[in-house]
What we know:
The chain has 132 residues and is mostly helical. It is built from 5 helices and 2 strands; from the N terminus they run ββααααα.
Amino acid sequence: MDENAKFASGNGRTELVKFISDRHANLMRPAARYYSALKDAMARGKRRYTLVKDVDDMETGAYDKPLPCFGCGIGWFSFLLGFMFPLLWYYAAFLYFGNYYRKDPRERAGLAASAITAMGFSLVLVVILAFR
């Protein structure tokens, strides 16, 4: 049996449970991984020391780096500046439909807002030109 598993009983049933931190260790931030490893070692009673890396040696996670455009992302930056320069909405809509947000999912909401605003702006332009 795996040493990271334990038995949990509830409502008269006994089932095998794995620690969540062991199943999803690659999704946690580096500092949380080290804390989780230390906590697991202490909980198992092995009394082994865990190597704690220096702050300078820690690798950055996927979302630890700030977003471009002053930290708010290309989508929200285009959305806000689009009220002065509407072509930025179309640029962000092009990025949205080109799946640019797959590089960083934090960009998705801003790009979607810009795409919706570009669609609304296009509709307003068509209505204005139709009634001229």
